[in-house]
Every structure is written in C-alpha cells, then in structure tokens.
Amino acid sequence: MERKKIAIIGVGLIGGSLAIQLHEKKLSSRLIGVESSPEHAAKALELELVDEVLPLEEAIASADVIILAIPVDSMVSLLPSVMDKIDRQMVLDLGSTKSQLVEVISHHPKRGRFCATHPMWGTEYSGPAAAVKGAYENKAVILCNPEQTDEDVLDWVKHMFAKIGMRQLVMEAKAHDLHAAYVSHISHITSFALANTVLEKEKEENAIFELASAGFESTVRLAKSNPAMWVPIFLQNKVNILDVLNEHIEQLKKFRDSIRDDKTEELRTLIEDANKIRRIIK
Amino acid sequence: MERKKIAIIGVGLIGGSLAIQLHEKKLSSRLIGVESSPEHAAKALELELVDEVLPLEEAIASADVIILAIPVDSMVSLLPSVMDKIDRQMVLDLGSTKSQLVEVISHHPKRGRFCATHPMWGTEYSGPAAAVKGAYENKAVILCNPEQTDEDVLDWVKHMFAKIGMRQLVMEAKAHDLHAAYVSHISHITSFALANTVLEKEKEENAIFELASAGFESTVRLAKSNPAMWVPIFLQNKVNILDVLNEHIEQLKKFRDSIRDDKTEELRTLIEDANKIRRIIK
Q: Pick from B171, B200, B230: which residue ends a domain?
C-alpha cells in the first residue's frame, strides 16, 4: 500500500513508539506530531520521532491518517471534534479502555472512518523520551467493533499492524474492557498499592534499596507508571476494576487468614492454585 | 584461602546455584550433595552441580563446611542435629527467615561454628534444574548475629561471599525478618493472590494467554514459586507478614474507595505517592 501522511496526537510513550515503527516499516511518507506540552513537542522533534509538530487543525487537514495516543479521558472529549473536522481521513486510537469511546461516537455521521484499537504494550515510563524501537513487535493488538468501521479504513489498519508484526484480535468494546481489567489494569493497581505499602511500612529506605531483590522489583515496577495515563483508565473502567479489585482483596484475606491461623494445608493449596498460572504464562 | 570440602544440604535452586559459584570461584576442593529426593540427587549429579551425593552423616563427617539450603521449617528441625554431629566444621544456612533459626541453637555448645546468612537472590523456579550460573553476583547477602559466630568461621564466610561478588550487610535476626517481610515476602503473597484473582475472574484462559502484557507477567511471575519453600517462610515470619499484609489490604481499599467514589484527586495522589518508589528502585 501507498505510504501515508500520518498525524499522531500525543507523541509520548505510546504514540512515540508507534511513530518509530511507522517510519521503520515504511508506512508513513511524513509524520506530524500534535502535542499540548511544548517540552514534549521539542523533545519529539529532537528525537526525530516526528518530522514536524503542528496545531491540531492543521495536522488533521494535512494528514491521511490521524492516530490518537492521549490519556483516555482526553480521548473521549477530543475524538468527536476530530471526527467533525475530518473529510475522508482515517482515524484510530491506541487507548486502554474502549466502551466509553465507541459509545461517544456511535451515532457520529463519520463513525465509519474511525477504528478503535488497543495495542497490548507499554512500560512504566512516559513521554517522548520513553519511546522505544521495536515496541509493538510480537505483541497482541485488539480491534474493537470493527463492523462499525469502513472497509478501506479497516484494511489499512490491519495492513499497518501486520507490517509492525502484531497479532490481531477482534473484540467487542465491552468485552475488551472486562478482559483489560483482569489482565492489565489490576496489575497496575496491585503494584501501586504494593509500593505504597512498602513505603508506609519500611521507613528505612536504605533497607529497600539494599535488600530489594529482582522479585520485589518485578512486582513493584509498574508503580512508577504515570497518573495522567492511569487515573482516567481506572475511572472509565471502574465497574470491571471494582469487581476484580474486590476479588483480589478477598484472595489476599484468604492468605492472611490461613497464615494467621497456621492453616498449613490451606496455605499450600492457595499457593498450588496460584501455580496454575504456569499453564498460561511461561 | 585454602579450598574446602563443602557439603550442600539441599541441592535445589538456592544450593545448586551456590554450588556452581563455589566451584567457579575455586572455593571448593570437592562438592558433596545431600538430597532427600532421589530424583533431585540424580539430577544434581547429571548436571555436575556436586561431585557426589552422600547420606547426611557421611557428608558431615567428610566436609570442612556444611551449607544448609532447605526449606526453613526443615532448617529449624535439622540444624541442631547437624550442630550435634560436627567437630570443628563450619556450618551456614541460606534461608529466608532467621529469628527461629538463631533462637533454636542460641544455647548450643557449638553455636560459634554456625553463621546465619541470607543471600538476597532467587527465582520462581525450583529444584537442581533451576540452578543458574552467576546467580549471586552483585546481589546483597545479610549476615545475621555475626557476634555469635567464631572468628575463623566468619572470616571464611566473608571471604566466600566476597569472592562470589556479593555486597555484605550485617543485621540482627529479628530486624532481618522484619525487612525481609517488607521487601521480599509480601511481594510473593501479592503475586500469588493476583494469580488466584485472575484465574478466578478470567474464565477464558485463552484471553489471559493472548492479552497478557509484559506488565501482567512481571507482577504475576512470582506466583509460580514453590509452596514447599514459601509456606514455611510465611508461617515462620507470620507476625511481620500479617502486619505488612494488613497494611497492603488497607492500601488496596484506598484505591478501591477512590475509584468507586470517583475521587480523581485522591486517586492521583495515591499514584503519585506510589511513584516515589522511583527514588529507590531505578
């Protein structure tokens, strides 16, 4: 397929990493960044993640494809006005929640020009300096409600993710949010809460620094993640997240009670149950 | 220093990985394994982790140094009888809890021949096949209550860990157990409980497999850990673990309540507090 002029709204971890791939895989003829933060705009240019930075309206007018990679609350408020401004351009988003987003434009006259996607990749860092090469390769991407997207848009989106080397799955937006709560969002909450627990109990920061093993680091790593990205995700997906978070608190209480009451066999069974994750995560 | 004949009681992940280092750093003239599992004994010989496998009494009689690397409940029951059987040999353990162990031999006539140590390294795997090269390098090791250990024993133990490339810290046994609960044991409980949460809620295992990102994998990795090792750790260190686990449940409830009540600013503050872990964990 022909290379496209692509505008990326939000050139941070997610948008910046995609920009690198779009260029490397010869999918873009020109990359245009849109950035609300002047520091991020300057950094994105310095790192050559994009060819130029333009105001939103100009970027939309000069692009063939518009990709939104901003926090999911901004996404929901910005997407309808982006759709208002386009002609025949294609629009896609890379956000971590989908129900509210597809709902807010479900009756938009240009709904067909939009494709909702969620590439399952991220790190605990943020901003353009956090963008990495090869980020999305061999990862999964979810296309939500593709039956609402025009065929030519869907064809290009599938072509783009295939060239980047992503496994593509189709999911209804509500199902996406449910699974994302279980497999991604809850991990971030447990990691944030673990960091707060240890910072609360372990007053000797030097002890954390000296003693922290690879195990501690891996469970607490996500606690470095950016609130601007995660607060809106937790609030938009609150029903699913509250459900899984309540279950998690119950599971922790089972550990607590069996330790407190010296129930060796119960404790062993709880751990053996947890070991079943080996079947799924190698 | 002269190379030693070293007996390793328990040639699994921890003992087997140390055996590799003892040989590589020319600390051992001969490595003798003691194994209650015939399969592990055969595997340890096949992998050449040890030169021979002997029954406990013979191993003690022919060794200069005896290293215990078995679950901490077996450690507490076995150590006094090992101390009964030695003459002038040196004994050390590599266990994850220390208070009960130093208590149980505090009045032993040969107490000075023993040194309590905790190298801060491990993985979620177990058994001799899980032993890895270079495991302990650049990690911390804690020496507990060294004032109760004879000088010649302490000298060799320090020499050994220094040659392996470990940072050595001294800590009182009770302080060790407190810090270990905060910085290691709680991470394992949260990971086990997260695995059980997701396995309970996410009935579509295929969805976990397809969608699980690096973030999920890192928070749930420790859930593969061996119950034979971890049940006794949790029970021996129950006072400290219950304390930090109750705090963790409270921290999770703060996240739950602020999400449930749409308290955006509170949620942002909770995450910003968690971000402070960046100061400590790079």
A: B171
Residue contacts between A and B (CB atoms, under 8 Å): 311
Is A201's CB within 8 Å of B243's CB?
yes
Q: How many domains does chain B have?
A: 2
- Mean pLDDT in order along chain A per 10 residues (282 residues): 96 98 98 97 98 98 98 98 97 98 98 97 95 96 98 98 97 96 95 96 82 87 96 98 98 98 98 94 80
Q: φ, ψ for residue B126 (rounded to 5)?
A: -145, 165
Contact assignment for B198 to A186 by CB distance below 8 Å? yes
pLDDT at site A280? 86
* % of chain A exceeding 70 in pLDDT: 100
The neighbouring-strand residues paired with A141 are: A119, A168
Residue B27 phi, psi dihedral angles, 5° rounding: -90, -25
Mutation choice for B interface testing from A17, A143, A248 by most B CBs within 10 A: A248
Contact flag B262-A213 (C-beta cutoff 8 Å)? no
Assigned token pair, B178:
């407190």
CATH number at residue B236: 1.10.3660.10
- Whole-number Å distance between alpha carbons of A119 and A158: 12
Chain B residues inside the 8 Å CB shell of A194: 186-187, 190, 248, 251
**B227 and B204 together in one domain:** yes
**Alpha helices per DSSP H over chain A:** 13-24, 38-46, 56-62, 72-85, 99-104, 151-164, 173-180, 186-201, 205-211, 214-220, 227-236, 238-260, 264-275
Q: What is the ipTM of this complex?
A: 0.94
Give the tens place of pLDDT for each residue, A57-70. Answer: 999 999 999 999 99
pTM of the predicted protein model: 0.94
User: Are B106 and B243 within one domain?
Assistant: no
Q: Domain check: are A166 and A273 in the same one?
A: no
Identify whether residues A166 and A203 lie together within a single domain: no
Query: Residue B192: closest CA among chain A residues belongs to which residue?
Result: A274
Most B CBs within 10 Å: which of A117, A192, A199, as the mutation test of the B interface?
Answer: A192
Q: Domain range for residue A275? A: 176-279
Within 8 A of B268 by CB-CB distance, chain A residues are 227, 231
CA distances B54 to A83, B62, B82, B104, B260, Å, are 76, 10, 15, 26, 60
Residues of chain B with pLDDT below 50 are none
Question: Do residue B137 and residue B270 come from a single domain?
Answer: no
pLDDT given for residue B222 in this prediction: 96
Number of neighbouring beta carbons within 10 Å of residue B132: 14
User: Are A249 and B249 in contact (CB < 8 Å)?
Assistant: yes
Last residue of a domain, one of B171, B192, B227: B171
Q: Search chain B and give the residue with CA nearest A253.
A: B249
Are A83 and A140 part of one and the same domain? yes
Is the CB of B222 less than 8 angstroms away from the CB of A217?
no
Paired sense of beta strands A28-34 and A167-171, if any: unpaired
A162 plus A116 within the same structural domain: yes
